[in-house]
Specification:
Elements lengths: L1 H6 L6 H6 L4 H4 L4 H6 L5 H12 L8 E2 L7 E2 L3 H9 L4 H8 L3 H10 L12 H14 L5 H10 L6 H21 L16 E6 L7 E8 L5 E8 L7
Antiparallel strand pairs: 1-2, 3-4, 4-5
């Protein structure tokens, strides 16, 4: 266990793990509260520790026979809810529990759990929190503001965030929008007016170079050849 904790910079918690006789194969079954009691209080550290312990194996859930159909994995709601609350990816949850992602999705539907849980915050409270954030960082756009709210433990839908920004800082939103990159429209007068030619050198170590040309108007491939080159880069 000490070597695992060293890899994730949690050596200071080894005393607690040793006292409780915690081994890597059961770390994935520990709840957030239990990990906090063992000295791992940071969510990111919990995720790193659990992922690191996957390679040491874990206890696969037992199968139980239901009233109908084949046996099902016995995954309790609290364990699954705890992993989702800690923002684990579905793929990581499946690895931790040694089941398929499809099984995780089925249990989420069974327990009425969602990967995306949003804060229960009305528009007025959201405006207050977002207004304070905008005052601190007046030049931040939607994406930065979203991450700042997440850092404060607040998750809201994108449309609610945009509506709140419009209510609080509509002039700033328009100013940021006017500074966006305006892409030019690609236009070619007609067929054979402009060809685009390029080469691909991924096979150059075997002396092959691929050369291709595309008509800019129709996007039709005009030629595509593989040629042998004698010019090799000397290492």
């Amino acid at each position: 266990m000490l070597s695992v904790l060293k890899k994730v910079d949690l050596k200071h918690a080894f005393v607690h793990f040793e006292r409780e006789k915690i081994t890597p194969n059961i770390v994935g079954m520990l709840s957030r509260h239990e990990l906090e009691a063992l000295g791992v209080s940071n969510t990111a550290d919990m995720m790193k520790l659990r992922i690191e312990c996957i390679k040491y194996g874990t206890i696969k859930p037992q199968k139980i026979q239901g009233s109908s159909g084949p046996p099902k994995f016995d995954i309790d709601k609290s364990s699954l809810e705890n992993l989702l609350d800690n923002r684990f990816l579905i793929s990581d949850v499946a690895k931790l529990l040694l089941v398929s992602e499809r099984t995780i999705y089925r249990r989420m539907a069974q327990f009425d759990l969602s990967k995306r849980t949003f804060s229960e915050l009305n528009d007025d409270d959201l405006d207050v929190v977002l207004g304070e954030t905008i005052q601190e960082c007046p030049l931040c756009g939607e994406n930065m503001l979203k991450h700042m709210l997440i850092a404060k433990g607040i998750r809201v839908q994108r449309w609610r965030l945009r509506d709140s920004i419009q209510r609080l800082d509509s002039s700033g939103a328009q100013k940021r929008k006017s500074g966006r990159l305006h892409r030019r429209v690609y236009n070619v007068m007609g067929p054979n007016h402009l060809w685009h030619i390029d080469t691909n050198h991924k096979l150059v170590r075997w002396r092959f170079v691929i050369i291709g040309g595309v008509d800019g108007f129709s996007r039709m491939t005009m030629f595509l050849n593989a040629v042998i080159t004698t010019c090799l880069k000397q290492s």
